């Protein structure tokens, strides 16, 4: 059975993303659009709009043309949207890069995306300069300043004309984030202007933002959740976005207090801190009216504990994935009694199926794989037709790899995952990638990785078979992997075993390792 939304359909936004977001910027005028939560520096809507146009002109003078790819490798700053929308105004596609990437990880994305320009910050230059070797990147720009490198401020100083670019919203790719999908290595997710612009419109009835709202942006803009919900959506609606470059609990709490933040979009580890950390007691959070969690599953009891401590009627949830631009479900904020643990109701103009292992739709209250169809479904994976076809079928249904059930009120609960990705603090960690790293260690004969629960989070645990006669400690394994991957991908636990369970085909039987872990915990 095809499940449809309870909400009226929305109009497909066939406009460039910069117009969808900043179309009313001059009307908002001097209202603060972006605020640096550390320094207090502000950009008004009028300034933000004007700066994106100057960046577009500067990029055009550099020779950036329609369809070129620009890599944006930066933490959250007030210049992030300036560069992002400036690039799309110039007709470019922006590939957003994880700020925690190593040089090798960044290099792979630059090669795969065929990026011609890299925009970063001075702190990241050692990684950036190492990563561009052997890529199409012709120049590195910095958002701040560094000797020997041109700054984004030079682009802003351009006196050239704003480029006149014809954008086809339905087909032109606006943003190219990288996702591991349901399995495997990271792939470029082609999201068109129509995809992400329309998904903002789909979110509006679920997440009702007022123009006087002040939103804290700790989730990274390079992640599609942060890009869409903390940048695109609030700037379209005239809210003020207060940015922090990284999550530090004390700085986060101080910013909530001093900037009178009204709404926080977070991931489950932040909900855990708000629910339990003693530092929360000494902070005035009376302005905070809404907390929404997404990016990873949130326990219903933890959500209730956080809401009770903060005096909120509920901590709301939302659901989606990069390949869905990203949203498909959210808990409506005007529901006086949202059910604990539910990730929300279906977005407008979105269809869903819950499909059993036999390929048939499941019955009421039964669990099945979540399939989604709607205007937010990605164009596909860059250069990976087979992976695209394996994820989006011929009828346009995107197979999420998540297992869910729906209640009588139309609320979705995500109960399990078909996919084997580990979600650590909302970041995707492919087990196969960590296994490949482990097997480069001459001291390790075989290895497998699964996600296990620890302190309310899912963390990577390695099951390791040492080489015969080799003395190896868990700390040595952890240190070896940590030196070769981004911090969020690090192995957190190690168990030594005699053999990794495998099928006759050689595929690792992770379900047996998960069963072993569950038995050990019992």
TrEMBL record:
Domain AMP-binding enzyme C-terminal: 433-507
Pfam annotation, one family: AMP-binding
Top-level taxon: Bacteria
A GO MF term: ATP binding
Domain AMP-dependent synthetase/ligase: residue ranges: 24-382
Gene3D superfamilies assigned to the protein according to its UniProt record, in alphabetical order: 3.30.300.30, N-terminal domain of ligase-like (3.40.50.12780)
Keywords of the record: ATP-binding, Ligase, Nucleotide-binding
Family matches, as PANTHER family: AMP-BINDING DOMAIN-CONTAINING PROTEIN-RELATED, LONG-CHAIN-FATTY-ACID--COA LIGASE
Family in the record: Belongs to the ATP-dependent AMP-binding enzyme family.
Name this protein carries in UniProt: 4-coumarate--CoA ligase family protein
Organism this protein belongs to: Kribbella pittospori
Source lineage: Bacteria, Bacillati, Actinomycetota, Actinomycetes, Propionibacteriales
């Amino acid at each position: 059975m095809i499940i449809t939304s309870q909400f009226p359909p929305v109009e497909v936004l066939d406009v460039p993303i910069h117009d969808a977001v900043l179309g009313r910027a001059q009307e908002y005028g001097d209202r603060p659009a972006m605020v640096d939560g550390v320094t207090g520096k502000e950009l008004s809507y009028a300034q933000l709009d004007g700066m994106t146009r100057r960046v577009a002109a500067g990029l055009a003078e550099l020779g950036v043309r329609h369809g070129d790819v620009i890599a944006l490798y930066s933490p959250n700053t007030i210049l992030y949207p300036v560069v992002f929308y400036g690039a799309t105004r110039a007709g470019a596609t922006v590939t957003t890069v994880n700020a925690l990437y190593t040089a090798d990880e960044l290099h792979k994305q630059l090669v795969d995306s065929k990026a011609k320009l890299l925009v970063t910050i001075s702190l990241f230059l050692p990684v950036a300069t190492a990563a561009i070797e052997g890529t199409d990147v012709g120049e590195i720009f910095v958002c701040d300043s560094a000797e020997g490198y041109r700054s984004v401020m030079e682009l802003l100083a351009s006196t050239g004309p704003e480029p006149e670019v014809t954008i086809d919203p339905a087909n032109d790719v606006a943003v190219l984030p990288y996702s591991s999908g349901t399995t495997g290595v990271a792939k470029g997710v082609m999201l068109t202007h129509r995809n992400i612009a329309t998904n903002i419109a789909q979110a509006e009835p679920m997440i009702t933002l007022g123009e006087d709202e002040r939103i804290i942006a700790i989730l990274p803009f390079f992640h599609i959740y942060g890009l869409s919900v903390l940048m695109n959506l609030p700037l379209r609606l005239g809210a003020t976005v207060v940015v922090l470059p990284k999550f530090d609990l004390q700085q986060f709490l101080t910013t909530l207090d001093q900037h009178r933040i009204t709404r926080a979009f977070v991931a489950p580890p932040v909900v855990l801190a708000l629910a339990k950390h003693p530092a929360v007691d000494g902070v005035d959070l009376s302005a905070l009216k809404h907390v929404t969690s997404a990016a990873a599953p949130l326990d219903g009891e933890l959500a209730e504990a956080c809401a009770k401590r903060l005096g909120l009627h509920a901590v709301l949830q939302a659901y989606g994935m990069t390949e869905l631009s990203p949203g498909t479900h959210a808990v409506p904020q005007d529901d006086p009694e949202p059910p604990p643990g539910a990730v929300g109701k279906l977005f407008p103009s979105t269809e869903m199926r819950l499909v059993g292992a036999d390929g048939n739709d499941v019955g009421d209250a039964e669990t099945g794989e979540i399939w989604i169809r709607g205007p937010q479904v990605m164009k596909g994976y860059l250069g990976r037709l087979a992976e695209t076809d394996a994820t989006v079928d011929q009828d346009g249904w995107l197979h999420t790899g998540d297992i869910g059930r729906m209640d009588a009120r139309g609320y979705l609960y995500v109960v399990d995952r078909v996919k084997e990705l580990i979600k650590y603090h909302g970041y995707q960690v492919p087990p196969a990638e960590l296994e490949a790293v482990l097997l480069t260690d001459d001291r390790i004969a075989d290895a497998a990785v699964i996600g296990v629960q620890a302190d309310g989070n899912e963390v990577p645990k390695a099951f390791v078979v040492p080489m015969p006669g080799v003395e190896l400690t868990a700390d040595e394994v952890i240190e070896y992997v940590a030196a070769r991957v981004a911090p969020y991908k690090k192995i957190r636990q190690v168990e030594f075993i005699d053999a990794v369970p495998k099928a006759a085909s050689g595929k690792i039987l992770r379900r047996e390792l998960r069963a072993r872990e569950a038995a050990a915990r019992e």
